Amino acid sequence: MQIARVLGTVVSTQKLDTMQGVKLLVVQFVAANGELESRYEVAADRVGAGIGEWVLISRRAIAADPDGRERSPIDALVVGIIDTVSTDTGLTYSKKDEYRYLQQG
Fold first, then answer.
1. CATH number of the domain that 22 lies in?
2. How does pLDDT run across 36-94, given as a tens digit for each residue?
């Protein structure tokens, strides 16, 4: 899995039937130190993530058929919304602190 930040949404009115009803998000990957990387991807979202949230992205293995449904061409799937990330150097991210910062800004 990888950590990413949700930047926005992708709307596609013409897509495969197996992709109908699947929310698509533009995500930017996050390095271990919390810095945003220059890598972007579109990921399917089944957990209801919003713009600005840090999420867990699963690629390939689970993304291909997460619910046992008909196979969809999903390469990346948001499988969780992150509350906190901490490493040996301390707290890297806290959703609570991020929300407070956005409310003050």
1. 2.40.50.220
2. 999 999 999 989 999 999 999 998 655 555 565 556 778 899 999 999 998 888 888 99
Q: In whole angstroms, give the CA distance from residue 88 to residue 105.
A: 29
The residues with which 38 forms a beta bridge, in sequence order, are none
Q: What is the pTM of this model?
A: 0.81
Instruction: Using CA atoms of 6, 8, 14, 15 in order, give the dihedral in degrees to the nearest 10.
Output: 0
List phi, psi (to 5°) of 73: -80, 55
Could you list the residue range(s) of the whole structural domain that residue 33 is in?
Answer: 2-104
Q: How far apart are the first and last CA of the chain?
A: 31
Q: How many domains does the chain have?
A: 1
